[in-house]
Amino acid sequence: MRESMKMPRIRESEVTDETTFLNRREILQLGSTAVMGATLAGCFSADEAEAESTSTSDGRMLRKLDNVKPAPPAFRIQEEHTSESDATSYNNFYEFGTDKKDPSRNAHSLQPEPWSIVVDGEVGKPGLVPLETILARADLEERIYRFRCVETWSMVVPWIGISLGDVLKSFEPTSKARYVSFETLVDRKQMPGQNRHVIDWPYREGLRMDEAMHPLAILAVGMYGKILPNQNGAPIRLIVPWKYGFKSIKSIVRIHFSESQPATSWNDLAADEYGFYANVNPKVAHPRWSQARERKLGEYRKHPTLAFNGYGDQVASLYDGMDLQRYF
Ligand code: MTE
């Protein structure tokens, strides 16, 4: 058996009966997280970074979050938001442990600043890019999205982020770039859950380029009007609202462009359970549970799951002609 297969699988009891009512607790106060200047390398010159920097003189990114554009109607779900305390205390972030409460308990050891991302592969402008350089290239915008975990819990969250497509374009992908993949930080000191081989670290995820360029896909740096808490993937994570939550990789340190489909963590662990596409689909059951219904964090009653998590009119055409039972 491969090392990585020793991971604890999601239990069925977690899927159907877990409620968050006992898990409520006060949110960690991380609002004033600063993003300081980082070392430059690759193709991004120091001058360019300075010109584009969004950091204020004291290096804080917080003020940039004050300049957030409201969510346009197409990107704003008209549903009650999940409470901030639920969304920040019931998490999946195996780098800090596999219990839902582990990330909020343990993620204080993550240092989200300074932060840089390696950009490489089929791309015209590879390099080590400071987060503030990336943030300077796109407007911060609120997005109020449904979020559906493969385990059948869901939430509605006001994220703050930037268009993934705009960021990717700024790196000038080559014509060979058909996929983009992402990696999370590997650092056992900052991420104590990595001392256990539950996943073949780093956590990896990927998208087809046309999916990544879709306007719904964002890189989130905040939620509920504040900087992203560590347990939710600080300082920068992916949000792809029509896909199961495991695609939305946290604490990204690498963006890689490739011609062939990249290996991804959950698909590697159990390809029959977690497809590469992972589009929310109530008609394709997980081998161990139905995906037809979901429970919103903070609620007892379940409600029906929507195809593409309710974003079908915006994204279904990406999959025209594909057998979604096979490419699940
Ligand atoms: N990213 C990393 N690096 N590690 C993880 O364990 N879990 C994924 C996704 N991104 C995960 C991750 C899963 S399974 C889900 S459902 C969402 O993060 C949960 O996001 P949340 O904790 O902000 O709700």
How would you characterize this protein structure?
- The protein starts with 11 loop residues before the first helix and ends in a 13-residue tail after the last helix.
- By secondary structure, it is of the alpha+beta class.
- The strands form two sheets. Strands 3, 4, 7, 8, 9, 11 and 12 form a seven-stranded mixed β-sheet that branches.
- It has a single domain, classed as Alpha-Beta Complex (Sulfite Oxidase, Chain A, domain 2), CATH 3.90.420.
- The model is unreliable at 1-8 and 10-60 (pLDDT under 50).
- The chain contains ten helices and twelve strands.
- The longest helix is centred in the N-terminal third of the chain and has 7 residues, at 46-52.
- The chain binds ligand MTE.
- Residues 91-95, 149, 184, 203, 232, 245-246, 248-251 line the site of ligand MTE.
- Ligand MTE binds at residues 91-95, 149, 184, 203, 232, 245-246, 248-251.
Keywords:
Sulfite Oxidase, Chain A, domain 2, 5-stranded mixed β-sheet, disordered N terminus, binds ligand MTE
CATH superfamily: Oxidoreductase, molybdopterin-binding domain
- Net shape: globular
What's the CATH architecture name?
Alpha-Beta Complex
Largest sheet: 7 strands, mixed
- Order of secondary-structure elements: HHHHHEEHEEHEEHEEEEHEEH
Radius of gyration: 19 Å
Number of helices: 10
Helical coverage, percent range: 10-25%
Strand tally is 12
CATH class: Alpha Beta
Distance between the termini: 25 Å
CATH topology: Sulfite Oxidase, Chain A, domain 2
Average of per-residue pLDDT values: 85
Unreliable stretches covering 5 or more consecutive residues? 1-8, 10-60
Q: How large a portion of the residues is in β-strands, by DSSP E?
A: 15-25%
Give the bound compounds: ligand MTE
How many discrete domains? 1
Sheet/helix structural class = alpha+beta
